Amino acid sequence: MSESKLAGQFFDAAIGLLERVRDEEGARIAEAGTVIAEAVAAGHRLFAFGAGHSSLPAQDVVYRAGGLALMNFLAVPGTAGVDVMPATLGSALERVDGLAGAVLDSSPASEGDVLVVISLSGRNALPVEMAMNARALGLKVIGVTSVAYATETKSRHVSGTFLKDHCDIVLDSKIAVGDAELTADGIDAPFAPASTVVTSAIMQAVMAAAAGELAARGVEPPLLRSGNVDGGHEWNGRVMREYGDRIFFRH
């Protein structure tokens, strides 16, 4: 099989998943956008969390040109990237009981805020406890996960539950267990994961829905512009001054 054919198959697989999510999750994505818009309009804060590669879609909506300035990354040290050494430590930390509570207790998150928890499998202690503890604090929790894992794998949390069991809204990425879209003769393991593409698209769709809902309510969405276009820095400076008490990625 030619390399170009495999590349094309990956694009087809990713497009198919995006179409499924658009058609099957559209109503819940709109609902999530409304929850975020309501929090913004009411003066609350927005947070996104993900560990390992699930942190990438969370980071993609923070301090983002064309994105909501109020979205903050809720960082758990050692879990947000492959720069931690060894990289396997990040995976191990996802299974540590109590870590989520410690992070939330020392964060600015409080009642009425919104937390988006992203976890492909939703089975590890960290995302499960993050959602549980956030709801106990009075936050609205939006979970972005593959629901298939809840029926095809076992939870690693002591409760036996998954992320999806502790969310106000669940957005299903439709990613198959194992997160690999392709197989081929001569290649022993499945390959070509699509979860980052699909989950990032879900996050941007939610942000778009939130911006539209804010506009419909007569509230100007606090959006950032690219710093690489004329006037971008001035625009962003104004937005950050106006909403500075809800933005935690700046001094």
Automatic annotation (TrEMBL):
Gene3D superfamilies: Glucose-6-phosphate isomerase like protein, domain 1. It holds the Pfam family SIS_2. InterPro entries: RpiR-like_SIS, SIS_dom, SIS_dom_sf, SIS_GmhA/DiaA_subfam. This is SIS domain-containing protein. Residues 36-219 form the SIS domain. It comes from the Bacteria. It comes from Streptomyces polychromogenes. PANTHER family: PHOSPHOHEPTOSE ISOMERASE, SEDOHEPTULOSE 7-PHOSPHATE ISOMERASE / DNAA INITIATOR-ASSOCIATING FACTOR FOR REPLICATION INITIATION.
